[in-house]
Every structure is written in C-alpha cells, then in structure tokens.
C-alpha cells in the first residue's frame, strides 16, 4: 500500500541546476576555483551547498574554515536569489502531479537545497502549501547520497499523520540523480526516477524510470507496489 510520496526539488520540480551552477561560479571563479558544467554534472550535482564548497576546496588542496564556509554559503545563496528573481519554469507534469496528490496522500519534499532557495520558487509555482513536510540541507548533517535526509522526511510524515502506517518501504521517492536514488533506497524507500538530469541507464537503481512526470498519476504510483 502506498503511504506517502516524497519529491526531490532540483531536477524534479524545476530545472535549477544550471542556475545553481551559475551561482557557484560567481563565487568560485574569483577564488580561482571555478569548474565547467560537465564537471558539475559529473561530480558536484549530488552535493548540497555545504559539501559542494568543501569538496572543491579539498580537491584543490585548500583549507576551508567553518566561518569561511558559512560566508561562502551566504554569498552563493544571495547570487542564487538574484538569478531566480526573474522566474523559473517547472518541469512538465510535476505541478499537476503534486496538486493531485496533495490532500489525498501525505506528500513530502526532500532536497539538498537550502530552504531559502526553495521557498521563493514554491511560492512562484503556487506550491507553498502543497507539502506536508519539507526537509532541506539546513536540517541534516550529510547530503545525498547519505540516507539521512530521506529518513528524516519519512519520520516527519509519520509524525504529521500519526494515524497512518507511514514507513519507508510504503513510500515512493521521486528522484533524478544517482545520489538521490542512493539516498532514498538507503533509507528504505522505493524510487521512481525521471531522466531529467541523467540518462536512464544511470538511474538503474530505481524501480522505474520515466522521461517525464507528464502523464504520471496516483494510479501510476500505486502500480509500483
């Protein structure tokens, strides 16, 4: 029985990865730490902001203090807010799917982005009240592929709906990256993957891969069990 659906954000609801990449480069290039889009896709796309900065400094053999890390995260967040202020477009079918599930099933959001990055976009899309629980990078100690964020997302749904048997194996995560799939499956969830960011062969750990959420509905999700 399907007990809940948990959506990733970047790469599932909106295509913000190019926008995050641009914001990162605005901060990193002046420091001599810039990298190209292919490297972002191949190495950094699964990290939250905190771990992405840690990783680029590590790979370049440079130290990074806690204070400097917080400053960089803040600067990148500011750059991202400027970029999204002109508006973003959702992926086909995703707003319709979320809206159709909201109120019918417990629906969560589990993202490696900062809450301050997410909330303005949800407001733009009319989804501010669509999720029963939201887990962001601000609330976990390790980014995907670590299962911490999905474990917390299921826990919060269960706390919000104490009369329902919400356990990981009864929940579906909707993801677009190998790191996201690993995080969800590591927490015990089933995964529907969408090939928005990676070719389908890279998403083999999911129980089903689709090329779009357009046409995916409640019955489609039930059929995954």
Can you describe this structure?
By secondary structure, this protein is of the alpha/beta class. The chain has two domains: 4-14 and 88-222, HAD superfamily/HAD-like (Rossmann fold, 3-Layer(aba) Sandwich), CATH 3.40.50; 17-84, DNA polymerase, domain 1 (Orthogonal Bundle). It contains nine helices and six strands; from the N terminus they run βαααααβαβαβαββα. α1 crosses α4 (66-84). It starts with a strand and ends with a helix.
Distance between the termini: 7 Å
Number of helices: 9
Q: Could you state the CATH homologous superfamily of the largest domain? A: HAD superfamily/HAD-like
Tell me the count of domains.
2
Which radius of gyration do the C-alpha atoms yield?
17 Å
| Approximate strand percentage | 5-15%
Q: What's the total count of β strands?
A: 6
CATH topology of the largest domain: Rossmann fold
Q: Could you give the topology of this structure?
A:
Blueprint: E1 4-7, H1 17-28, H2 37-44, H3 49-59, H4 66-84, H5 94-101, E2 107-110, H6 115-125, E3 133-135, H7 148-160, E4 171-175, H8 178-186, E5 190-194, E6 208-210, H9 218-222
Parallel strand pairs: 1-2, 1-4, 2-3, 4-5, 5-6
Helix pairs in contact: 1-4, 3-4, 4-6
Short description:
The chain is of the alpha/beta class.
Which structural traits does this protein have?
Rossmann fold; 225 residues; DNA polymerase, domain 1; 6 strands; alpha/beta; 6-stranded parallel β-sheet
